[in-house]
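Appendix B. Raw example, untouched.
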Amino acid sequence: MECGGGDTKPWLLATWKTLTPKHKLNAVIEYILPRWVELGRYLFNGELEIDYNLIENQIRPVALGRKNYLFAGSHNGARSSVMIYSLLGTDKLQGIEPYAWIKDVRQRLPEHPINRGEELLPQNWTREQS
């Protein structure tokens, strides 16, 4: 899909030819032109985000935790931490309040059949189960 804008791309090309290499607008145009098709995709699809901020915010705890994993005390401790982070991240994605999930699962775990453990995972969990 070609980016719309009618006369925009020809104007950019014509203007770019008149600029000196050190002109600030030159750098902007040199950035835009190779990305023209992708820019059009973004402009004509309202579901696309212009940046990665949403994803970066989702993975920030993992990136910050990476240093902490070095001081988890043991390999098993680090692995347990990663599992808990994954479960809590899944809670968030499922719209579940993590404390409510942990509290409910801890109460049910001693009596819950071992072969039905997947029922307690955040993506399968509901309060009505209790």
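End of appendix B.
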